[in-house]
Amino acid sequence: MAQCVQSVQELIPDSFVPCVAALCSDEAERLTRRNHLSFAELLKPFSRLTSEVHMRDPNNQLHIIKNLKIAVSNIITQPPQPGAIRKLLNDVVSASQPAEGLVANVITAGDYDLNISATTPWFESYRETFLQSMPASDHEFLNHYLACMLVASSSEAEPVEQFSKLSQEQHRIQHNSDYSYPKWFIPNTLKYYVLLHDVSAGDEQRADSVYEEMKQKYGTQCCYLLKINSRTSNRASDEQIPDPWSQYLQKNSIQNQESYEDGPYAITANKNSDSNLFSLDGLDNEVKDGLPNNFRTHSLQLDQSSDPSNSFDGPDHVKSSSSHETKKTNTGIIHGACLTLTDHDRIRQFIQEFTFRGLLPHIEKTIRQLNDQLISRKGLSRSLFSATKKWFSGSKVPEKSINELKNTSGLLYPPEAPELQIRKMADLCFLVQHYDLAYSCYHTAKKDFLNDQAMLYAAGALEMAAVSAFLQPGAPRPYPAHYMDTAIQTYRDICKNMVLAERCVLLSAEILKSQSKYSEAAALLIRLTSEDSDLRSALLLEQAAHCFINMKSPMVRKYAFHMILAGHRFSKAGQKKHALRCYCQAMQVYKGKGWSLAEDHINFTIGRQSYTLRQLDNAVSAFRHILINESKQSAPQQGAFLREYLYVYKNVSQLSPDGPLPQLPLPYINSSATRLFFGHDRRPADGEKQAATHISLDQEYDSESSQQWRELEEQVVAVVNKGVIPSNFHPIQYCLNSYSDNSRFPLAVVEEPITVEVAFRNPLKVPLLLTDLSLLWKFQPKDFSGMDNEEVKELVTGEPKMIGTEVVSEFLINSEESKVARLKLFPHHIGELHILGVVYNLGTIQGSVTVDGIGALPGCHTGKYSSSMSVRGRQDLEIQGPRLNNTKEEKTSIKYGPDRRLDPIITEEMPLLEVFFIHFPTGLLCGEIRKAYVEFVNVSKCPLTGLKVVSKRPEFFTFGGNTAVLTPLSPSASENCSAYKTVVTESTSMCTALISSASSLDFGIGIGSQPEVIPVPLPDTVLLPGASVQLPMWLRGPDEEGVHEINFLFYYESVKKQPKIRHRILRHTAVICTSRSLNVRATVCRSNSLEDEEGRGGNMLVFVDVENINTSEAGVKEFHIVQVSSSSKHWKLQKSVNLSENKDAKLASREKGKFCFKAVRCKEKEAVTQSSEKYTFADIIFGNEQIVSSASPCADFFHRSLSSELKKSRAQPSVHKVKQSLEDAVRVIQKCSEVDLNIVILWKAYVVEDSKQLILEGQHHVILHTIGKEAFSYPQKQEPPEMELLKFVRPENTTVSSRPSVEQLSSLIKTSLHYPESFNHPFHQKSLCFVPVTLLLSNCSKADVDVIVDLRHKTTSPEALEIHGSFTWLGQTQYKLQLKSQEIHSLQLKACFVHTGVYNLGTPRVFAKLSDQVTVFETNQQNSMPALIIINNV
Predict the structure, then answer these.
(1) Is 12 exposed, middle or buried (0-12, 13-18, 19+ CB in 10 A)?
(2) What is the mean pLDDT of the chain?
(3) pTM of the predicted protein model
């Protein structure tokens, strides 16, 4: 139980005090009424004795009584009605609320920290009122009257006569059978005569004389002269006299007071609650029912109109207004206005005198009489203490009559029965705190009653015996709790008297609590909760809860559970504030522990109670909790919660319609998932026109691709800024999300919409309907270009002239659905915009059925769903920035950077480009060329310039050459609608090449430029507002099959330079699916024949293999090789060497074709200086139409593939060489075997599609770098190297060997033997045959070379000597020569043969070294082919 102000040792004696009746004359009542008090109320603050008093027990032992209190009350002749008592108790409880600012105890139990009010004053008030308002009953005498004060005034005409009238009146009430109430202790009641004297108005001498007369008539012990009203009431304001009455009267101020206007003063009758709540209910001078006005019906009597059986626990009978009114009426009244402090002392003295001289002697005498009476009746030993049950067993009525008298609670005794005399004596001893004697009397009476089966009497004796045993000084025996249990059970179950049972429980629980037996106390309290009284049950449950929390190891959950039960019963009893308090206290335990259903129930109840008490903010927050926690409730329950919440919210918002919009709890907004998009929505594809994909909110964020786009943008910006990226460069962000860099204020352009995507989630199982959904913003208009000193204009919110706001009329979120809403703003002015949040009406659908389909889109007619109720509110978008982790301080603490994506700066107008692709293919063959068109449209009001496009795959597309001559005009320029520039040729020039040349500069691929950045050839380089231009664009299918995503980034600038935004971009991703077409491989080798018509410089053979690897699903019938072209700065194809007579180069599926071409060096005039980057193109045609390979688009794609190849080769890391001179030497030697010859294979493919034949065309490139090394048109897959065991060896030579390889050295010098193929010699005439042989040595390098020719046969093994067919060289065996750059030297040799036969002349070994090198790289110049000679005999 909660802590109480009084200990149980003080509580029980104060609850059972001697009762004294008061009977006043009208005049006496009038005197006390001048102080707004009745006589009984006047005495109330002074009714406790300030000193100890003594009396003697029947054994003549002195007994000390401490703190004795007496209860004086007016006589009331009707017992109080239960309904009125219930109403009073209800009022007492509702008036007593926890004090404002009361410091609660913090109890820590386990992991709970609970704020709990330590005291429960409402329970104490209830208990006090309950114990004092108990009606007197026949089976106990504790609250029967022991004495009666008869009060008259000295100002009456005949005071003494008035006393005798009052005395008769008292006698009549006590002894007349008409009055069964009030109850009197003994027939011979003590009468005490009090003369009231008004000092300020009365005659003191007269008063003294009347007093003397009284003393002579009634004896000095029973008379008293009490002087009051020492000051006139009009002097009341002079000094402040304490008002000891207010605390006693305040408790009952709840009872409706009525003001009486008929007396000289306006009088308020205050019911008193400290005694039995007996008081007057008015001052009118009539006599009711033959009684003077002094006693009436009980103050607790109900009005006649109301139904006495009416239960006062109904939920709506407590009108809080009444308590407010009564407080008002009370505060204005000053009690005791005519009394001075001397008068206070006089009243105190009067009570002392009455108790010492009147009451206590009377009680002492009565105890003796009862004792003597009991003993004399038995004629046995004088002392009661040694008595046993058999002393009293004789005088009972016969058995038969007992049975007749039995009722539900057992026997009923006549008033003079000896058993009742014992009980009477026990009660008297109890009242004067003689607990030993009381206990033994109760104990004896209990046995008697039990023997007689008089259960009501027995229960009363058991109850008081237990209390007496507990209160005995020195505690000779333990508290007999089982007595109480039996008493409670008897009262409740046998006697059906809940009031008495409740008294037992209240006393016993206090006693158990004082012994720290909280568990037993709680069980006892819970046992008495029942359906018949909600208020009692609520209070007892609450006390039980306090027992659980006050245990040694607190039972927190039991506390909370019983608090909930108590709150429920308080609610049923109409005690809304107490109910709310209980639920709130219990909530501390259930909160955040995962008891979600319990939490929901508590919050729901708190919400309801707060709402009824008009604590609307609390109600809103409680309902908000139910909605925002992940609710496990069923859908109908959630729907109910939501409707309740909306209803409460609506009422709150109606109270302050002009106040700020409230924050709504639903739906959830994932703020960090908010995305912003600057710009117009993308136009859909229109027929053959396809708009650039650009950026939209529908695209998923991909960090890899965003990095690629960033690199493209940096590339183009670097080109525009002469190769340097400006320090203040930031990539343009059209779409902001949680991955983008939001540390800077984003830039938006005026008149271009801003779309904000808000991610909503509905956590409930019922759909939510948001209506009139729009963004909430504030805007600061600025003029960025203006002067700095211009004052900042005021913040604007909701001004459509500045910022247009789109309103979504209906947005439905189905149950447990996550859904994004896209809301637009249209800035019409430059300045700073801050997007604060969203504003909407929150409602639910009538009937709360889940609606299939998508929520209403903007522009839907309203009323698609009927909303039952909705409230207007807002939710803020607050985005936490990224956690900072750069400095040490940031790493050690938790700090977050800013996220400014919701605070865009609106800048002045910029051009806006839209790009459309016309006839853009989705599928191509590898290498296929297709022509499409691109349309550029400027949809803004500013001209744009500097249009460029950048792509990682520049070899995929071209806009044509820089000069119009090189670019074919339109697709219809030649037959078959070819994309190429073609010229019709005669069939005679079939095998010889047609020569043309072009500079790489014509195709935008100059030295050092970025091949990826391509300027778009706009006419006049400017696109005016509203203008559009169409340009042709050739595409070539990538060489690898599969799906290719090709990113184009269009870059453009405004003609007028803007300070904030330098440029803008537009993105497009083209997806192309390529399928296999041809596979081309080529090799080049030296031709051995040196005597060509070109003379010096040598020539080569080019072998080309073409294979059709197309799989037939593309519908390709066959490929025709139309033309083979070469492109090089130094070489050109001269003619086709036909291996077969087949002129027609057709390849059906999986067929392979072989071509052989002769290549020669370009003439010096053709191969101009290298810096000019002139390429010579040679075309060998297999058809009747020449494709000009040096024109666009053939040359474009050739140059682009070339540059991308170069880029790849550059990307491979070069190893640093140590010796520079060595490296140069190697370089020279390597150059000999290098050749930069590029082959372009042009083809047509015949495709059947939908029974129509189409002709596709395309080109493949093979780049030949090295003699003898095979090159491919498609990228080779790298074979992964095989696993090798690791060798841990220390390398001796750390430098990389710079010795050239055999192949490189063998191509340094080219050798050729000239001799007759057959030689006839008459061996019979001359045995030796001499043949002249010329050895031609050609220096292939650009450096001087020293050559050694060694003619000695190299004998490798003895077998070699035996080979038939050896011959000998005559003359010098070794020649040393120096060959200048590209010089050809002929050496005349003679071979000598002795037999006929076939001989190989290729035996000379040639050694070479560079002249300026110290180190000689000598290696055998092996000839590739044997030089065979036939020697015949004639």
Answers:
(1) buried
(2) 78
(3) 0.67
